Amino acid sequence: MRDRTRYLYLAVIVAVLAGIAVGFLWPDVGKELKPLGTGFVNLIKMMISPIIFCTIVLGVGSVTRAAKVGKVGGLALGYFLVMSTVALAIGLLVGNLIDPGTGLQITDAGKQAAAAEAAKGGEAGSGADFVLGIIPTTLVSAFTSGQVLQTLLVALLAGFALQAMGTKGAPILVAVEYIQRLVFRILGVVMWAAPVGAFGAIAAVVGSTGVKALQSLAIVMLAFYVTCLLFVGVILGPLLWLVARVNLWSLLRYLGREFLLILSTSSSETAFPRLIAKMEHLGVSRPVVGITVPTGYSFNLDGTAIYLTMATLFIGSATGRPLAVGEQISLLLFMMIASKGAAGVTGAGLATLAGGLQSHRPDLVDGVGIIVGIDRFMSEARALTNFAGNAVATVLVGKWTGEFDRDRCSAVLAGDFPFDEATLLDEEEEPPPPAAEQELAKV
Q: What is the distance of C-alpha 186 from the center of its chain?
């Protein structure tokens, strides 16, 4: 099937350029177009609760299945947790160092709203009020009230309850997985409004601040790309060599066609079956690949973690109300949990970003409209970093469990055993069945 999101990508680029032109030529008109960006952000906010519920329920189930396989699953999950933490820390460090949104103060109204929110929080900031605030009145009210932390609580309870049900809960997991597909399909439809939202948001920002807004957006985008390169080269590269004696750049060159595929679609999901086949061909055992790669696609999202970190810090600074260190840590930990299982879905990054801000700093949610214009530009680096991280993780887990053929790997990377592309022709036509559906088939 032909990927039509490429047309969306082009439409967003055209819309951003048009918004810049309107903002420069007719600043007053640009300011009046802000409701277009706000309306798009509201559409994204509409999808937050169902996305978080489905991904968390299925994510908790995935952890259970991975943990049941013993050593491989435990090592993989432990490694993913550590790497996600490192990625968040690097994003926080770089974001605070460059602080591209400083002094931008997109609107005085936004700054006043932030101050009002701070005063409000200061008056009712007791721990008891916070705890009571995350407990919904009913299960349904968690989805209708717009309180993201309440939705998160209900999702966790549902996930753990399904764990306790064992095989009897498999049909429910299947149902949730299909609901998730529906939710993501709706999100895909919503994302076709992204050009309109990007046009309105960029026109309003440029109309209010002029060229300074473009400079700030360019800086945060460039910094994100550089940060992803540093993470892969400085963190993953030495780690891969020290543990498995595998050269990172040789591994990335071996996966070159997959990187080109991801670059053309802005999604690492498109290369999922190819990564499984190539990791087995490289010398990692089938059981290790079968556990590590699918689990990593939900839990090893290094590029996404860096993106969420830097986007959050930029929005806080650009709207005139930067986040304190404590707010940064709590907010990004929430985002790390809420994003599990949503990687590779168009718009999921924006939904996770909006959901985190809605739960912790509602006064900053409107700032998501600023990111819409450059989100697609950063999605390639996000997907490429996620994919590289999962390839490295598969080799490392294979080495730690004694399921990695080092000699075979050297021969493959040297070109002695070229990969047979014909073996993937059938797999690329039909995606693998949902994990919950596989579980149900065993019942």
A: 18
Q: Domain of 294?
A: 17-441
How distant is the alpha carbon of residue 335 from its chain centre? 9
Contacts of 266 (CB under 8 A, 6+ apart): 5, 9, 346, 376, 379, 380, 383
Helix (H, G, I), strand (E, B) or coil at 141: helix
- The pTM of the full predicted model, rounded to 2 decimals, is 0.69
Query: For residue 297, how many other CB atoms are within 10 A of its CB?
Result: 21
Burial class (CB in 10 A: 0-12, 13-18, 19+), 422: exposed
User: What mean pLDDT comes out for the span 410-431?
Assistant: 65
Digit-coded pLDDT (tens) for 317-332: 777 777 777 777 777 7
Assigned domain for 431 exists: yes
Q: What does the DSSP 8-state code read for residue 409?
A: H
**4 located within any domain:** no
Helices (H) and strands (E) in the chain, counts: 23, 0
In angstroms, the CA 243 to CA 220 distance is 33
CA distances from 242 to 102, 255, 399 (A): 39, 20, 11
Q: What percent of the chain has pLDDT above 70?
A: 73
Q: Which distant-in-sequence residues (6+ apart) come within 8 Å of 335 by Cβ?
A: 305, 308, 312, 352, 353, 355, 356
CA atoms of 240 and 97, how far apart (whole Å): 28
Kindly report the length of the chain.
Answer: 443
Domain contains 393: yes
Q: Looking up tokens 């919904």, which residue turns up?
A: 136
Domains of the chain: total: 1
Tell me the two tokens of residue 390.
Answer: 């999962």
Q: Is 185 exposed, middle or buried (0-12, 13-18, 19+ CB in 10 A)?
A: exposed
Per DSSP, helices labelled H in 170-301 are: 170-191, 194-209, 211-230, 237-244, 248-254, 256-265, 272-282, 286-299
Residue 1 is assigned to a structural domain of this protein: no
Residue 309 in contact with residue 92, Cβ under 8 Å?
A: yes
Backbone angles phi, psi at 280, to 5 degrees: -65, -45
